[in-house]
Amino acid sequence: MSNHNAANEAAAQIQPAKGKLGVMIPGMGAVATTLIAGVEAVRKGFAKPIGSLAEMGTIRLGKRTEGNSPLIKDFVPLADLNDLVFTGWDIFGGNLYDAAKTAQVLDRDQLDQIKPFLEGIEPMPAVFDKHYVKRLDGKKVKTGRSKCDLANQIRNDIAEFKTRTDRQVMIWCGSTEIFLEPKEVHSTLEKFEKGLVNDDPDIAPSMIYAWACLKEGIPFINGAPNLTVDIPALQDLSKQAGVPTAGKDFKTGQTFMKTVLAPAFKTRMLGLSGWYSTNILGNRDGEVLDDPDNFKTKEETKLGVLDYILQPKLHPDLYKDIYHKVRINYYPPRGDNKEGWDNIDIFGWLGYPMQIKVDFLCRDSILAAPLALDLILFMDLANRTPALKKLGMQEWLSFYFKAPTVPEGLYPEHDLFIQSMKLKNTLRHIMGEGLITHLGLDYYGD
Q1: Coil, strand or helix: which one is 139?
Q2: Where do the domains of the chain lie?
Q3: Nearest 5°: phi and psi at 144?
Q4: In 152, 240, 410, 434, which residue has its Cα 20 to 30 A from 89's Cα atom?
Q5: 187 φ, ψ to 5°?
Q6: Model's pTM, two decimal places?
Q7: Is the dihedral angle over the CA atoms 292, 298, 301, 307 positive or is it negative?
Q8: What class, spelled out in words, does domain 3-250+366-430 have in CATH?
Q9: pLDDT in tens, 50-66
Q10: Which residues pair with 279 in a beta bridge?
């Protein structure tokens, strides 16, 4: 079979992106309002979708000499931005224009250009329990006899939204919950569902959303470091139902820089003796992470990165004794404009020490919004692609996460450039195109 036929056959198995794509967001705060306002601004022609690989990225097909690098959105059948419809849940009430003003990410003039659109979206009351996020008080919260009752209320919300949209995706943009470890209730779907009925304290609100979402056959994306779908019960449900999941924790500022710099040191066999990271931020995320139990959840995802990239067991002379420290400090004046400061102590030839200092004055939600958009578009694509859908967990989307979920027995890939290659090769594969290996023999000889 010719390459052209193979490509046509592979692409033909992917269902087209017809009709409206409904986007359901638990937690409609800074990230969600920045995403939604941004999508509308792009649709109206006020802005470009900067930071979105799905919208602005290209993908090389074939040899360099062929000069064939289409836009990703022209290569794979992604949903059109004009077909996105948004809804969600939030504990604070009010419409999205009010929520966006409170978040103070986008300036008032920009928001006013799309004010009627934002005012037209009002979040539904959320499933919330202060036990998991102590620093917040819920104003619009669902009540129910049990966690099972609450989960079924979410399913009813989803069912209503299904009547107005053709396909759906759910993306968690809510707060970081307290640190939870996998327990017995998470071990099987049967035990988990019994735990919902019995109000088990190890079932957090994000898990209730994820269960309801997967039961309704909708892909679920975890943008926070919560345990959520990293449990056998929900992974089994995802696989049985053939519904994609992806996570976890959007890779935005400091960890993004780590997954760029650490691979560079390892590639050049430069040693690392210490990496001190601190953050100051003042948005609701900062307030929540000011609580030690919630910070521990975030710390786990931020600390794991270096070990996996540097592989100290394979390179003990260079990396076995790294001192790695991560701090997050709540500093209200900074708002959403987070500062990530890193001091990196490296050593080179004959053990001579050197230092690198990074001061990243980043805007958290401005970095997170395009990641959320890409994940929505790619997860919808996965749900229409038989080869991806059946996997359940979408490891090829590791590019977007601080703590990528992987099948048991595998270690996560954190190197940003390997993640990027994995993502693009997956797109080539599902479209029946040849993979690009960067082999150095391609252009030589006959």
Answers
A1: coil
A2: 3-250+366-430, 254-362
A3: -165, 165
A4: 240
A5: -75, -30
A6: 0.95
A7: negative
A8: alpha beta
A9: 999 999 999 999 998 89
A10: 328, 340
